[in-house]
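Repro:
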Amino acid sequence: MLQKAVKISGIIIGTLLALALMIYMYMSVYFSKRFSYGTYVNHKDIHSMNINEANDFLVSNHIPGVDYSNITLLFEGAEGYSEAIKGEDIDLKADMTMGLWKIKEAQTPFGWPVYLFYPVDHNLVPEISYNEDKLKKAIKELGCVSDKGDKKNPVVELRCDENGYYLYDEIVDKADENKLFDIAVKALENIDKGVLELDITECYIPHDIPEKYMDAVRLNDKINLVKEAKITFFDDGIKYTLNGNLAQGWLLKDDTGAPVLDDKSNLVFDENKIQGYTEFLSDVYNTSDGYIDWEKHSGGIVTLKNALPAYVVDKEAEAASIKEELLKGSVLTRRPLYSSEGNGRGNARVGDTYIEVDMSEQKIYYFDKGELTLTSDVVTGNLAKGNGTPAKLCYLYFKQKNRTLRGEGYATFVNYWMAVSGRIGIHDATWRSKFGGNIYKTSGSHGCVNVPKDFAAKLYEVVEIGTPCVMYY
């Protein structure tokens, strides 16, 4: 019995082994022409597929929902231009068979049980092919290359809208077909979607304008120079810029709206507009007249009329310079053109070297670079007789030694004469034994500032022409 059982078991085991071997051999033959278990490409399972089946499957699923024959090259250019070439027009195809062959050749059909437990994911990119001759022909027939989009009688003329003058040009620029071919080839090397949008704005070849239109072109060039101009006025921290886009609106027009040219073929500006701008510059940069607030040496603020040398814009010279610079398209920064120049603006006009006369205190001070170096009592204009010394901001404009001062009913010799405002000056008064106090109210001068001789001598030696003089009550 035992021997019989052993014999039966042996038969069963042998049969099973034979069956397993038959299955193994069958599967080995099966996978000799198909991909084994555990074969993935781009995360997709291709086991049991032959190379052609795998290729069709992978290509059709490489870009979901996209058939390579329907891929579109969309050429997009100037002024809304858009035109397409279909993949089928150039025999566009995608193929992975070369890569699949390499994967298949690396597999042994007898190793299929191992691949079942050790899957491998391969990365493959389709090889793109197309008919270059058909692509070149399709590009040559695009409207941006051929003449099919041209107008028969294009218009080229100078026009004007709310933004100013511009050249209206209906002649269409052609695109360079070689450049179009290059960007198409580059796009086909990296297909990642169904529509490949190609920007061709850099592919255009600028067109030549026929001579019959060149008058409009030359006039537009002149206007563009004005548009490109930028004149920045800068002085003492004050900055204003005249932009060419604004200035083109100052061009004089004829009855048709066209810009006027002079006998030298230069653009002509509306003089009222130019004058208006020079008036603006004067308002900004002039320092004539006006008042300043002065902090007295003894304390407190006093408002004084300014009579210092002033900045005055030379409007005529500025008008001529602005027009010349605009016509040249100049881009520059400069000071305004002045007919006269002052010492600064606001309290900066005075600076830190000046004479200060406090007529209420009957004192005179001389500050040299901010340091008080001389001071004295004074006698100013006689208030009782209406000869009060004027309160103002002026400057020393003349000085002389040994001068005789003359007026109605008097002729007075002085050793040191320093004129600061008209007939008003600072001078020694050797006939006085006292200075300061209230002398000026009833026994003051004819309007001058009387000082002791020794002070006058010291001041005369150090003070310079142009030194500001601040006089106040």
